[in-house]
Amino acid sequence: QVQLVESGGGLVQPGGSLRLSCAASGTTFSFYALGWYRQAPGKQRELVAVITSGNKTSYVDSVKGRFTISRDNAKNTVYLQMNSLKPEDTAVYYCNAARLRFGNQYDYWGQGTQVTVSS
Q1: Could you give the dihedral angle defined by the CA atoms of residues 49, 51, 52 and 54, in that order, rounded to the nearest 10 degrees?
Q2: pLDDT tens track for 78-116
Q3: I want to staple 73 with a disulfide (CB 3.0 to 4.6 A). Which of 30, 52, 69, 94 is the partner?
Q4: Which of 105, 93, 99 is nearest to 19 (CA)?
Q5: For 27-55, what is each residue's pLDDT tens digit?
Q6: Cβ atoms of residues 10 and 116 within 8 Å
Q7: Helix, coil or strand: residue 83
């Protein structure tokens, strides 16, 4: 059974920084594309950042230049470094791992970690 566990969320002031971590068990991260999603109350879940199995990254426009996604396959962990945080970044952040094998996509999700940006 694949399990993803997020950590690192909390309360931070605008302009501050936070690093989220997502550790996996039951699988090897090197085979997966990894993503960070977020969902604010009353809003749709949004893809924030992705990193492919080939280590290519992509970000939603609103976080470009502020957030950085990275992975450490040896530790089976994906990170989201968040700098220059804004109140609009407040949301529950979810880790996702996805793989495509023989035409079938497999997705796994963490339980989420709350990020609150407020003064």
Answers
A1: 150
A2: 999 999 999 999 999 999 999 988 999 999 999 999 999
A3: 30
A4: 93
A5: 888 889 999 999 999 999 999 999 999 99
A6: yes
A7: coil
Q: Which amino acid is at 2?
A: V
Give 97-116 as a 3 state SS string. EEEEECCEEEEEECCCEEEE
Structure tokens at 52: 């492919």
The pair phi, psi for residue 23, each rounded to 5°, is -105, 135
Query: Sign (positive/negative) of CA torsion 114, 109, 67, 19?
Result: positive
Which one-letter DSSP state was computed for residue 30? G
Give the Cα separation of 76 and 105 in Å (integer).
20
